[in-house]
Write a structure and sequence with these properties.
Chain lengths: 279, 165
């Protein structure tokens, strides 16, 4: 027996490692989406390293933009002033339009929900195994972040929500393109309700539970959040319908291009008001 | 713990941190860069070739679990795939000659493909999760991993040769 153990020591150790990891996989089943202590521990340990590397690149980028592109500042400044002027005009026009269309209490709830307090954060890491599933941002529990807070991009479009693990200075964000993501949405035009699920195979989304008999949705329609899921405030742009397939199944197969742009995902805004929390 | 084991453990820890830093730096290039090359797989294979099958398997487990901690997928899948790859790379490299750069690149490429296949099998077939194919971009991962691994191996050899005069 001892000779067998001695002869096969290496293969037995590797088999033990594999069994241990299979046990870790099976332990995850009762936890569901909640990360284990081990997973949290590794995240807490390595997230500051990711923060450090991002800070390094950020600093190098700042030096580059400050010193080498300084001569373009005046031109950029003028362009931004013009853009700001136009955006202010547009903002006033849109608010006036909103006042005309809705009653005051509804406006307050929409504006209060969508433009509640938020925290700007930088994206410091992408999901290592599948970049369409999650990102890591540089704000954590020390900044008041908690799981289930909604995350928007710099245009105010939907990105995802904060999920555990949340460390002191870093948090993980589940993207709307993750397979396990589910957001209640409706068509801005036809009002058709559905659930936006992620499709991490190609970074798109699927609109689910739209009956094949429901003809009130067309390609190109914009989808906005409803707020029914009690996580995302209503009225946030989530995506655009790109294709609708009707086959023999009960529901339509609807592909949606999410509004979040992976190439432009460097800064995000976290809505710090939790679902159901009063202002 | 013998001095060799202690040295291997220190080398492993440093390699893991270096791999993590390079992976974090790749994020600055963008998501396609993360899909096209697997720094952790290259690290596991090179470490296994240099140190043997058991340190390779342990390194595979450590790298895989770090990957799993920074992913929303099922925790432990990359760990299993990398453990098997680390053991296989260390074991096979003892049986055949992989010291020449060309042979080594092919070997790392094959081991990278093994790791990728295991991960795809476990993720998509066993657990039914999505694979980020990105119009086939992910398929060049073993190739670029081989190039990265071979370059790393050559650099380590040159560094060691320089240190020993």
């Amino acid at each position: 027996m001892s000779r067998f153990l001695k002869d096969n020591r290496k293969i037995l150790i590797v088999a033990g490692l594999l069994v241990g990891q299979l046990a870790v996989v099976s332990l995850q089943v009762p936890l569901g989406d909640e990360p284990s202590f081990f997973e949290r521990g590794v995240f807490f340990l390595f997230a500051p390293l990711e923060h450090f590397v991002h800070g390094l690149f950020d600093a190098a980028g700042r030096v580059w933009s400050r010193y080498l592109y300084l001569r373009n500042v005046e031109t950029q400044n003028q362009g931004m002033r013009d853009e700001l002027f136009l955006l202010r005009q547009e903002n006033v026009l849109l608010r006036n339009e909103l006042v005309r269309l809705k009653d005051v209490r509804h406006i307050e709830s929409v504006l209060g929900g969508t433009y509640g307090p938020f925290l700007a954060a930088s994206v410091i890491g992408l999901d290592v195994a599948n970049p369409f599933r999650s990102i890591v941002i540089d704000k954590g529990s020390r900044d008041g972040l908690q799981a289930n807070m909604a995350v928007l991009d710099r245009n105010g479009d939907l990105v995802g929500r904060i999920v555990n693990p949340v460390s002191l200075r870093e948090s993980m964000v589940q993207l709307v393109t993750d397979d396990n993501s589910a957001v209640n949405v409706q068509s801005a035009k036809s009002g058709v309700l559905g659930q936006l699920a992620g499709n991490s195979r190609n970074g798109t989304c699927l609109l689910k539970y739209i009956l094949a008999s429901d003809a009130g949705l067309a390609e190109g329609e914009e989808l906005i959040t409803t707020g029914f899921d009690k996580i995302f405030p209503p009225g946030i742009k989530a995506g655009r319908v790109v294709s609708i397939v009707v086959d023999s199944s009960l529901f339509r197969k609807i592909e949606v291009q999410p509004t979040l742009n992976f190439r432009d995902l460097r800064r995000v805004a976290v809505l710090t008001r939790l679902p159901g929390e009063r202002p | 713990m013998t001095s060799t084991s202690l040295r291997d453990a220190i080398h492993g820890g440093v390699s893991l941190i270096a791999a993590f830093l390079i992976q974090a730096a790749l994020h600055s290039i963008g998501a396609p860069a993360l899909l096209a090359v697997s720094v952790f797989t290259a690290t596991v294979i090179v470490f296994a070739v240099l140190k043997g099958e058991l340190p390779g398997a342990l390194m595979g487990m450590a790298c895989g679990l770090v990957v799993d901690s920074f992913s929303l997928g099922i925790f432990g899948l990359a760990g299993i795939a990398n453990t098997i790859t680390g053991y296989a790379a260390g074991f096979i490299s003892r049986k055949i000659n992989v010291q020449a750069p060309g042979r080594l690149a092919v070997f790392i490429g094959l081991m990278g493909f093994l790791d990728f296949s295991l991960w795809v099998f476990l993720t998509a077939v066993v657990f039914g999760q999505g694979i980020p194919w990105s119009r086939g971009l992910i398929l060049i991962q073993p190739l670029l991993t081989a190039v990265l691994g071979a370059l790393t191996f050559i650099l380590i050899r040159k560094f060691e040769a320089g240190r020993h005069g």
